[in-house]
Amino acid sequence: MRLMTFVWTALLLLLTQGTASADQEQRARDLLQRAVDYYRVQGDTAFAAFSRQGEFIDGEHYVFVVDTSGTMLASGGTSAAWIGRDVTEALEPEVRNGFRQALAGAEGEIRSAEYRWMNARDGKVERKRVFFERVGDRVLAVGVYLPRATPEQARAFLDRAVDAIEQEPEASILAVNSLSPRFNEDDLYLFVIDLRSGRYVAHGYNRRLLGVDFATIKDPDGKPVGKPILEMMKDRSEGGYGYRWRNPVTGKVEDKYALLRKTGHLLVATGYYQNAE
């Protein structure tokens, strides 16, 4: 069906499962239901209400509407700049083609998927899960930002990073310290330890740690982090370690699980965050 093909040809950059809080997802679903009920009564005149501050704005949640050709018809968020335009222009052709698929669904059925969009609160492009429902030849949608990467995403991120460091170690270390998007994805970032000196040589979030003795690092609760990791990795090529650390996306101290990999004299690590404090 062209209807369901269009939106996710246009919007989806990711179709993986994420971890939004149940409360945030329920708020998004509730807002979508209110919007659908309102649209069924008001028709296209509802677009004005969807596109202004008011009852269809709930914190970072807002309603947007697109038609079967991919044109944005209404939006209460940053995508308002696309009203009247083909949203498919927002994606590079290779990405658009890579995620082209038909998402069949009957009218009245709420579906969900993921994509990436700018969060107006922090100005960053972040993963977002959207809930959408078709009403006639319109698709009404509400999204919720996903502040935490999944363990699977963290492992894939580490795999890509280790491959890059093995191929171009100096350039990759420089890119990490320059906060390159290649090594900085949502709440995923890298840190790299030189096992010969035991000190940080790269950090994708806090450059003040560069040159610091990793063995001295503790989490905000005083739990040793660096020393036990260095001990564990003496006779292992990879491993994992749990501690607490500040999430750069949420700004909160959260449970974190670090994924560790040795390559040559370097220890490369990333980690995924779990439950917020």
TrEMBL record:
Keywords: Cell membrane, Membrane, Signal, Transmembrane, Transmembrane helix
Domain Single Cache: 17-100, 148-227
Keyword hit for Transmembrane helix: yes
Subcellular location: Cell membrane
Domain of life: Bacteria
InterPro entries (UniProt xref): sCache_2 (IPR033480)
Pfam families for this protein: sCache_2
GO CC entries: plasma membrane
Signal sequence range: 1-22
Name this protein carries in UniProt: Calcium channel protein
Biological source species: Stutzerimonas stutzeri
